[in-house]
Amino acid sequence: MTVKHATAGAFVFCHFGDCWRLGLIEHPRLSRHMIMGGHVELFETQAEAAVREVEEESGLRRVRLIDPPTPGLPVGFPHSSVAAPWWTTEQDVPADNHLGEPHVHVDHQYVAVVEDPTPVAESVHRFGWFDQRQLAGLSMFEDTRQLAAVLFSCVDDVVTGRVDPVMAVRPLVAARG
């Protein structure tokens, strides 16, 4: 039986004058630029874990999750909603500090923005902001590079609310074909 752990992370964007930039950490063990993220603790939702991990790993504060391209709950629904991820994927991972054998991360990937790009607390990992052109020169996992490309193509419209997220990503999803 394969062990599965819930993880959560976020593609965090900030607007720098003329362009959007994506915040990435340099993961010391994996030697890659990555979005911030990690394991979901027993006391939190995946959305809460994504925000906590961003704050711990980057030192950023006031992280705001962006609603994904999914329908909302109907008016009058009797339960609290939890922010939905943009994507949920399964990733085979080697042994790590949480489990001494290969296992699967069920990764909940969110999109977020911050107004202030300056970390206000000590970060756990080396952190930096990168525009879309700079990503080509970074050592990244291909899945992160692909999703970042999708998000860079629509982040301005989605964050500012000029376009519904479903409409913004539909052409990119259709292009997978």
Automatic annotation (TrEMBL):
<dbReference type="InterPro" id="IPR000086">
    <property type="entry name" value="NUDIX_hydrolase_dom"/>
</dbReference>
<protein>
    <submittedName>
        <fullName>NUDIX domain-containing protein</fullName>
    </submittedName>
</protein>
<dbReference type="InterPro" id="IPR020084">
    <property type="entry name" value="NUDIX_hydrolase_CS"/>
</dbReference>
<keyword id="KW-0378">Hydrolase</keyword>
<dbReference type="Pfam" id="PF00293">
    <property type="entry name" value="NUDIX"/>
</dbReference>
<feature type="domain" description="Nudix hydrolase">
    <location>
        <begin position="3"/>
        <end position="151"/>
    </location>
</feature>
<dbReference type="InterPro" id="IPR015797">
    <property type="entry name" value="NUDIX_hydrolase-like_dom_sf"/>
</dbReference>
